[in-house]
Design brief:
heterodimer, A: mainly alpha, elongated, B: mainly alpha, 9 helices, globular
């Protein structure tokens, strides 16, 4: 994500009322928590997975979750 | 025009319905271009795409006709309706309409690129160079893969986190596919298997194919992720 977009996001956030800012913050924290839970469960599944195909699929999913956590943190 | 707007797009739900119909048209076009039956894909993706007899037949879908007769008029009405009605909307409604407009724009852009892609797929699939034919079949494979995954996503009853993860997974796959294609093109040029004209077409079309695929995921993100915060996390806005 480029700097311009990040600045726009910050601007938009501070344009919100205090109540809306708190709601947004809480919502994002909830989403991040859910994503972290999913990340942990995938990591456990990877340890259990026996076939290479399953491991590859789970690793791809883990990569996706990590990307989403990064994006959610920027939000 | 205003009367027809009132008739066709009285509220945001209708607008959403229109865009869904438009995206269905886009899916049909991509399915036609990739010439893959989604059910067959489940058996052996690679084999089917390379050995399907239909793959070598010329694609006769008239994209210009579809664009002019259906998409263009609908797209114009969507833009007009949303521009006229936005001043009476709340901030949330304006955000929703803004996203729906983005989805329509992405659909129209993809249809235009599908037209370019179809032209070259037809041209090179009939040619004698098996290397370029193979590469164009791989582009079809990329389109078919994305389409299949999105179809599954649309049908499956899954929660927003899982849906978002699946979309991100598709995007990673598209990136990997794109990187592999670029590497392959370099190799084909170095070994003189394709000439400069073929290489330029393939480079452009590979980028069209991956842009269309990413846009499909982004349209799905707008249409099927209800929660605005989830939607924002899933969007990229690159294309």
């Amino acid at each position: 994500m480029n700097i311009k977009k990040i600045v726009k996001k910050i601007d938009n956030y501070f344009d919100l009322s205090q109540k809306k800012q708190d709601e947004k913050k809480q919502k994002l924290l909830d989403i991040l928590e859910k994503l972290m839970d999913k990340k942990l469960s995938i990591q456990k599944e990877i340890k259990k997975a026996s076939s290479k195909k399953d491991k590859d699929e789970l690793n791809l999913e883990l990569k996706a979750i990590k990307n989403l956590i990064k994006k959610a943190s920027i939000e | 025009m205003i009367n027809s707007l009132k008739l066709h797009a009285q509220n945001i739900d209708n607008l959403e319905k229109f865009i869904n119909e438009n995206s269905n048209d886009l899916y049909k076009l991509i399915k036609n271009t990739s010439r893959i039956e989604l059910i067959e894909l489940k058996i052996d993706f690679q084999k089917i795409i390379l050995f399907n007899k239909n793959i070598l037949k010329k694609i006769n879908t008239n994209i210009d006709e579809i664009y002019k007769e259906t998409l263009k008029s609908l797209y114009s009405e969507i833009i007009r309706f949303s521009s006229l009605s936005q001043k009476h909307m709340t901030h949330e409604e304006r955000t929703t309409v803004g996203s729906l407009k983005t989805a329509s724009r992405k659909i129209v852009k993809s249809v235009k690129e599908i037209k370019e892609l179809q032209k070259n797929i037809n041209h090179f699939s009939q040619g004698k160079n098996s290397d370029i034919k193979y590469e164009y079949n791989l582009l079809r494979e990329q389109l078919a893969y994305t389409l299949r995954e999105i179809e599954t996503l649309r049908k499956d009853e899954i929660n927003e986190i899982d849906r978002l993860t699946k979309m991100e997974t598709i995007k990673i796959k598209i990136d990997e596919f794109d990187a592999a294609t670029n590497e392959k093109i370099d190799d084909l040029i170095r070994t003189n298997k394709i000439d400069a004209r073929m290489a330029t077409s393939l480079i452009n079309d590979a980028s069209f194919a991956s842009h269309i695929c990413v846009r499909l995921v982004e349209i799905a993100n707008i249409m099927w992720i209800d929660d605005k915060e989830f939607q924002k996390i899933g969007e990229d806005n690159e294309y």
